[in-house]
Amino acid sequence: MKILVASDKFKGSLTAAEACAAIAAGLHDGSPEGGHEIRCLPIADGGDGIAGTLTSAAGGAWITVEVRGPLGEEVAAGYGIIDGGKTAVIEMAAASGLALLGDCPLDPLRASTHGTGELILDAISRGVTEVLLGIGGSATNDGGTGMALALGYRFYDPDSLPVTQLPLELERVARIDPPDSFARPGVTVACDVTNPLLGPRGCTAIYGPQKGISPETFSLHEDRLARLVAATGAEGAHAAGTPGAGAAGGLGFGAIVFLGATLVPGFALVADRLGLADAVKWADLIITGEGRLDHQSLEGKGPCGVVELARAAGKPTAAFCGSLADRSLEATFGPIVETGDPALTLAENMARGAEMLRAAARDFPLSLSCPDASVSRRHL
Q1: Tell me: the pLDDT tens digits for 80-132?
Q2: CATH number assigned to the domain comprising residue 305
Q3: What is the 3-state secondary structure (H, E, C) of the chain?
Q4: Structural domain of residue 34, as residue ranges?
Q5: One domain, residues 119 and 156
Q6: Looking at the structure, do residues 88 and 166 belong to the same domain, yes or no?
Q7: Is residue 296 part of a domain?
Q8: What is the pLDDT of residues 202-233, one digit of tens each?
Q9: What is the value of pTM for the model shown?
């Protein structure tokens, strides 16, 4: 049997590549004489993990530089260079991500995308002409102004006085001037949400609470971004309503107005770069997975995209996950194996992620090409 293993990361436990390797090893353990041909193709959907996934698949180079973290602290952030040095693959979470805050208090008034701009500048200095920018997992709600400041954009108040403390003084911004010189690359933004910048589905309303925005401060943050839109004129007004403009605290919006970026579904970009459709056609069975499968997994996430490609090709699918919200998801994914042990803590499950995933794959019956195939669903 030809088996394609196309798993996303098990966040906090395994990278996508590590998850695919554990599943493949378990399948080999379970059929040492079966002679199955197994191909691993780690996936991502535009959030954290996209840079490593695409760089590894392309055999590219990995660059690490010191940049400002979301609250101005120095962090080491990496990105990939592929296509013979022409393309940089950057994920904003590496420089401006929520995970970088650690135990620090959330501070949405100050959290900035400045470090993301520094990564882009570093890539430009190395001669890249194209940037693939994955956005997601942000600590920020700054509309991309920190990134713009790092790139050389200048912000002014109504009296033409410079505004340099961004996003802290975002409400003062009335005019924005572009850099005197800027070798702007072509930029494609990979995002897995379709939220606009403002309104009830905008970034402040939907994602603000996880970044420390309370109901009492909602209007303050919404008004700050509305002020930014006004300062960017007709282009900004149009960009604010673009699906995905509200991704990563409005970095989608900032990428459009400050970088001339095109926003695309993250999984579609990754699938195209990886040649995933051809890999699906090659396989007899497609196995996908991620750390947690729930109904959000149906909204542009990588495993759902894998299954959609498989269904279009008429191929059977199955999925592995650390935790599962609802068995009804098998209607979409096919048989689902949940690997987490309810007797263990979350930290213990994550620490043993590779071991438990390999054991689950070892015991997985490969008769899924049959319509009435059954699968063991025990916790391992």
Answers
A1: 999 999 999 999 999 999 999 988 999 999 999 999 999 999 999 999 999 99
A2: 3.40.50.10350
A3: CEEEEEECCECCCECHHHHHHHHHHHHHHHCCCCCCEEEECCCCCCCCCHHHHHHHHHCCEEEEEEEECCCCCEEEEEEEEEHHHCEEEEECHHHHEHHHHCCCCCCCCCCCCHHHHHHHHHHHHCCCCEEEEECCCECCCCCCHHHHHHHCCEEECCCCCECCCCCCCHHHCCEEECCCCCCCCEEEEEECCCCCCCCCCCHHHHHHHHHCCCCCCHHHHHHHHHHHHHHCHHHHHHHHCCCCCCHHHHHHHHHHHHHCCEEEEHHHHHHHHHCHHHHHHHCCEEEEEEEEECHHHHCCCHHHHHHHHHHHCCCCEEEEEEEECCHHHHHHHCCEEECCCCCCCHHHHHHCHHHHHHHHHHCCCCCCCCCCCCCCCCCC
A4: 2-42+284-362
A5: yes
A6: yes
A7: yes
A8: 999 999 999 999 999 999 999 999 999 999 99
A9: 0.88
